[in-house]
Design brief:
Chain lengths: 422, 169
């Protein structure tokens, strides 16, 4: 961003830009050189920005009608659904928007895992991303508590009780979080405050995330360093803008399907029963996007170790740039890693599935195997693979395989030649 | 560094930092402590319950400080069963006599010690309580027998005000 020379054309533009270089920033964002081979997996950054803005706008509107009080919250949500003009629409967008946000973020994260986007020099982008992901989980969890239904109440009870696993100070921390001796009105009001705050923290981190991205520039599907600007890059506007816009449109079709046709399919029927501190629902499960971590929590038979395992499963991601020892970024040139990558995807999906099932019998066994594999992938397979794997030769530039007729990319696409290389 | 002589300015820096730290601490603490239970929450510290209508073999659930309290009037069979359990078999060894001073009445917090769900009455493998959230089994004395919960269900402070009334808290 620093080495950017730009002079506005108009006199007013010059006058303004000398005092606040916003036009330089706008010019940087439009001209920003982007690798020309970015595929549709790279459109989820834009989609996520859309999700964040949607949640903030619909959330602001909901807050105009919602009442954060244990006696009134449940009724005020029903009031939004039945009485407020278009209240049903705004709430369904907000509730399903959370799920869409997580759907997009998981694709975004797994895209990074496949193409090695977390590796040097992009570690800070990655770590900021993990912090955003953590804040998203906190915001989603607290937002789910606000309607004050049975799942809200018991979800809040179980999650806050995770802190009681901490030796000595655990109970004190839980009481402090609750502002009482159980989840009650003080808990609800502070969750509402924090739920309102966190999206703006995320917004600030998104700015840092993009800023850090614009220093080295985008990674790309073949994972090589790209000289920019060069024949390997195109300006962000209009090339990437139009591609992002098209992908966003496709995404919005999926979003609209959930909002208009199955607005409650991702929720739980129990949450339409008002919170009752005397009765726990027979089967409590978190929202789908937290299920893999929930499965890890339940797969460990010890309370403290279960909590540690669950938190480690998230924090281990922050160490990923150093756990993955391979110098090659893209899985396109890592035949063995590519297979482990898909095993990991399956492993996380399995964890998500068993997280929704009762923690007993075969489900518990599967959860334990899948939990063990999850840690094995990050702590053993990735560090060793970086040294042992025979990677395929990488092209020198994005253009080379096309214009120069290099055999490298052709080899990747042609399975029979791939066999010979092994 | 070690050869550098301590000057008046170093003293001033240290003193300023120390006073600043105390000031920041004194300002931050009220912001943190305001989240702890307030006076009105603490004021609801005790509840009196009339138990005259509870028949043997039945449990009533009352709310105390926002949490459910189970009051079970145990049958003689249940008392015998609770007393017969060997302490070696327990994850959190406690004698039944220590948990129920009057063996007929078991008064305990109906909160699973794992993650705080309310266990279900007369369910599970030990004829006591079963937590539906993560599968902890408790016996008829409320002691943890199987599952992820680390300790027995808690016994609150309580006393019999008279033959029919229990004061919890």
């Amino acid at each position: 961003m620093s080495d950017h020379e730009y002079t506005p054309k108009s006199n007013f533009g010059k006058w303004f830009n000398d005092r606040l270089p916003l036009l330089t920033l706008a010019n940087h964002l439009t001209d920003y050189p982007t690798p020309k081979n970015l595929n549709y997996w790279w459109t989820f950054g834009g989609i996520l920005t859309f999700c964040l803005v949607t949640q903030i706008v619909t959330g602001l509107v909901l807050a105009m009608h919602y009442i954060a009080h244990a006696d009134m919250a449940f009724d005020s949500v029903e009031h939004i659904m039945r009485d407020v003009n278009y209240g049903w629409l705004i709430r369904y967008i907000h509730a399903n928007g959370a799920s869409m946000f997580f759907l997009a973020v998981y694709i975004h994260i797994f895209r990074s895992l496949f193409y090695g986007s977390y590796k040097a020099p992009r570690e800070i982008i990655w770590i900021i991303g993990i912090i955003i992901y953590l804040l998203m989980m906190a915001a989603a969890f607290m937002g789910y508590v606000l309607p004050w239904g049975q799942m809200s109440f018991w979800g809040a009870t179980v999650i806050t009780n995770l802190f009681s696993a901490i030796p000595l100070v655990g109970e004190g921390i839980v009481t402090w979080l609750w502002g009482g001796y159980s989840v009650d009105n003080p808990t609800l009001t502070r969750f509402f405050t924090l739920h309102y705050l966190i999206p703006f923290l995320i917004l600030g981190l998104v700015v840092l995330h993009i800023w850090a991205l614009h220093v080295p520039g985008n990674n790309n599907p073949i994972g090589i360093d790209v000289k920019k600007p060069s024949k390997d890059t195109v300006p962000f506007h209009p090339y990437i803008v139009i591609k992002d816009a098209f992908a966003l449109l496709m995404f919005m079709i999926v979003f609209a399907f959930f909002v208009f046709y199955t607005p409650n399919i991702l929720g739980h029927a129990d949450n339409y029963i008002e919170a009752n501190p005397l009765v726990t629902p027979a089967h409590i499960v978190p929202e789908w996007y937290l299920l893999p971590f929930y499965a890890i929590l339940r797969s460990v038979p010890d309370k403290l170790l279960g909590v540690i395992a669950m938190l480690s499963a998230i924090f281990i991601l922050a160490a990923l740039p150093w756990l993955d020892t391979s110098k090659i970024r893209s899985a396109v040139f890592r035949p063995i890693y590519r297979q482990f990558y898909w095993i990991l995807v399956a492993d996380v999906l399995i964890l998500g599935y068993v997280g929704a099932m009762p923690a007993e019998g075969l489900y518990l066994l599967i959860a334990r195997v899948a939990t063990a594999y999850y840690f094995l992938h990050f702590l053993v397979i990735l560090p060793i693979l970086g040294f042992k794997e025979r990677t395929l030769p990488i092209p020198l530039s994005i253009t080379e395989p096309v214009l120069g007729g290099s055999s490298n990319l052709a080899a990747v696409r042609d399975d029979s030649r791939l066999e010979k290389l092994k | 560094m070690s050869e550098k002589k301590t000057e008046r300015r170093d003293f001033l820096f240290t003193a300023t930092a120390a006073v600043g730290a105390v000031g920041v601490g004194a300002t931050v603490w009220p912001m943190i402590d305001q989240m702890n239970p307030d006076a009105s929450v603490k004021a609801l510290a005790s509840t009196e319950v009339d138990v005259s209508s509870v028949n043997p073999g039945k449990t009533i659930t009352v709310l105390w400080r926002g949490k459910p309290v189970f009051i079970r009037r145990r049958t003689q069979d249940e008392i015998n069963e609770a007393k017969a359990v060997k302490l070696e078999d327990l994850k959190h060894p406690e004698k039944d006599e220590d948990r129920a001073k009057n063996p007929e009445w078991l008064v305990m917090l109906g909160v699973c010690t794992h993650l705080g769900c309310v266990p279900l009455d007369q369910k599970g493998d030990y004829n006591g309580w079963f937590c539906p959230c993560h599968g902890s089994h408790y016996d008829i004395s409320g002691r943890i027998r199987k599952g992820p919960a680390p300790t027995n269900m808690e016994i609150p402070k309580y006393e019999f005000v008279n033959a029919n009334t229990i004061k919890i808290g």
